[in-house]
Design a protein that fits this description.
alpha+beta; three-stranded antiparallel β-sheet; globular
Length: about 70
């Protein structure tokens, strides 16, 4: 008999969850893209994920993320 327990499944964020929002965080964009947040940070630095730099914040414009994914705005 095994005493292992699994963590409850966390709902996965989808592009539809961002409807009505102008921007999202890089972490949220990473979750939608199915990549690690570190990979998303690097993709932002390379210009592969569009981002706005406002002070110390880095935000991903939702319409541009949708376009990147080929999802109609």
């Amino acid at each position: 008999m095994s005493n292992t327990t699994t963590a409850p499944e966390r709902p996965t964020l989808t592009i539809e969850d961002l409807d009505g929002r102008a921007t999202c965080s890089v972490k949220e964009a990473a979750e939608i893209l199915g990549i690690h947040s570190w990979s998303a940070d690097e993709a932002v630095k390379r210009g592969e994920i569009p981002a706005l730099h406002i002070g110390k914040r880095i935000l991903v414009p939702v319409p541009r993320l949708r376009a990147l994914l080929g999802v109609d705005a």
